[in-house]
Amino acid sequence: MDLNAILADVIKCKYPGVIVGPGDDAGVYRFRDTAIVETVDIITPIVDDPYTFGAITAANSVSDIYAMGGTPLTALAILGFSSCDFSPSVIKKLLAGATDKLKEAGACLIGGHSIEDKEFKFGLSVTGKVDKKKILKANGASAGDILILTKPLGTGILTSAHKLGKIKSMSLEEAVSLMLELNKNASKTALLSGSHAATDVTGFGLLGHASNMTKGAKLDIVISYKKVPVMNRVKNLAASGVAPKGAHNNLNFFCKNATFSKNLSKEDKLILSDPQTSGGLLIALPEKGLNKFDRIARREKMPYWIIGEVIKGKGRVVFF
Ligand code: CO
Ligand code: CO
């Protein structure tokens, strides 16, 4: 369920301070001369180690600030857990992971709230600032832009396979190190090279977040499946029937906005719909910015993949 889409329907009145309301990666509010960015994200455990899970949660939560072109400043933790099942030492490790990752992002944890919950959940609400002339809106793309992705897909399929016992922890290492990677450099590179639009690929998969970029715009996004980077083993796992429920839900929900060429299999479509945790940025960049983007990305040792382009259209995502 897309809470932001429902919120956008419910909130009818316009507040003068709101620069970006529900529906984007984060909300932006102008307070005097400062544009404040705010977001919240909660996830359930995807790795066994509490420190690592805390760090991934933090990277995932600050990602929405980076997806707006912002700088994270502070965070509040939200924790749901059963106090009979988890000792304070586990929670300490979880929070240490989150605090360390926030520190790397230049932000600090300044509080939080916990609640008794049968199912373990952890998340962060993050506040940041952004230059209001340089906001990376999700729907700010223009026809002629090229489309860049900064992390390969597959965290949903790999973590599901691990939960099902189909792969060992070792095979999860690539996904874990990618989920721990902040989108800080991706955001900086997008801003410095003149991009106006970006979003992070998270729960709705590449398909869902690409459709969000074209929503209500007279644009189509055209993506070449063979150019989309995918983590090791993901294609084999998908072919053997491993895909989280979220991938199926995303495909069912967003397929109405998409056109798939006939040579793409059901597995290919599920990979394109795979919900990502702490996924990469999907950036729409004017072609003239590419040289600069490449220069900065090389300097920062940030990998990236050109996966498609933005053309005039009717708000569809075309995969071929
Ligand atoms: Co987002
Ligand atoms: Co989010």
Total number of beta strands: 13
Please state the structural category. Answer: alpha+beta
- Poorly predicted tracts of residues: none
Shape call: globular
* Cα separation of the termini: 27 Å
What is the helix content?
25-40%
One letter per element, helices H and strands E, the order comes to HEEEHEHEEEHHHEHEHHEHEHEE
List the ions, cofactors and other small molecules found in this model: cobalt (II) ion
What number is the mean pLDDT?
96
Q: Please give the radius of gyration in angstroms.
A: 19 Å
Beta content comes to 25-35%
Main sheet: which strands, in order across?
8-11-7-12-9-13-10
What's the main sheet like?
7 strands, mixed
Number of helices: 11
Essential attributes:
320 residues, alpha+beta, seven-stranded mixed beta sheet, six-stranded mixed beta sheet, binds cobalt (II) ion
Describe this structure in words.
This protein has 320 residues and is α+β, with helices and mostly antiparallel strands. The protein contains eleven helices and 13 strands. Helix 7 packs parallel to helix 9. The two termini are 27 Å apart. The protein binds cobalt (II) ion (2 copies). One cobalt (II) ion binds next to helix 2 and strand 8.
